[in-house]
Write a structure and sequence with these properties.
Elements: H1 12-16, H2 19-42, H3 53-65, H4 70-79, H5 83-96, H6 103-111, H7 116-129, H8 136-145, H9 149-162, H10 167-175
């Protein structure tokens, strides 16, 4: 093993530089750090919804196109954090369903979920894959009740390909899969 000299670096700055210069550098580093931290606080958060007048314009146009009244559109778009997302949810569900669901019911359900983009995708995916679309209100309600609507739609569509169950049974099994098993599971 080679001889490595034991060098103590703690006194290196004290020997080469006077004490005032050593603390001078730390003051500048401290000031730059405080300034940088101030800039981070001053910048707006990225996670907040960034809605501009174009978002509200698109929201109102899309909601009026599905047949909602002007007061409903004004209230819905004005209250939404992401107006384009809300109108996208309503139009996606409205376009993928028949006349069984009213635009008011669709808007009500889109306003009640956290992931309205996934709600629209859930209803659209299930309606495209299931041939029996007689109970679209139950599909919309089940997608709304699901915490992860997109995963819920994958469950319904996947089970529908191999299992011969009614639409209501598929929805209830994917929404609450442990309903029947909980009686037999050992404790």
């Amino acid at each position: 093993m080679p001889n490595i000299p034991n060098i103590n670096f703690s006194n290196l700055f004290l020997k080469k530089f006077p004490l005032s210069i050593k603390f001078f550098h730390w003051r500048w580093i401290y000031l730059v750090g405080i300034f940088s931290y101030g800039l981070l606080i001053a910048t707006p958060e990225v996670a907040t919804a960034q809605a501009n007048k174009k978002s509200f314009k698109i929201c109102s146009e899309e909601l009026l196109s599905v047949g909602l009244s002007e007061t409903e559109v004004a209230n819905a778009c004005g209250a939404a954090l992401k107006p384009r997302g809300l109108s996208g949810c309503v139009t996606k569900i409205y376009d993928s369903t028949t006349e069984e669901l009213s635009a008011e019911d669709i808007l009500f359900n889109c306003q009640r979920v956290r992931r309205f983009d996934e709600l629209g995708t859930c209803v659209e995916t299930i309606n495209e894959s299931i041939t029996d679309n007689s109970n679209e209100a139950a599909i919309l309600e089940s997608c709304r009740l699901s915490l992860l609507p997109e995963r819920f739609s994958f469950c319904v569509v996947g089970l529908n390909t191999n299992v011969e169950l009614t639409t209501e049974e598929l929805l209830s099994n994917c929404l609450n899969p442990d309903a029947e098993i909980s009686d037999i599971s050992p404790d």
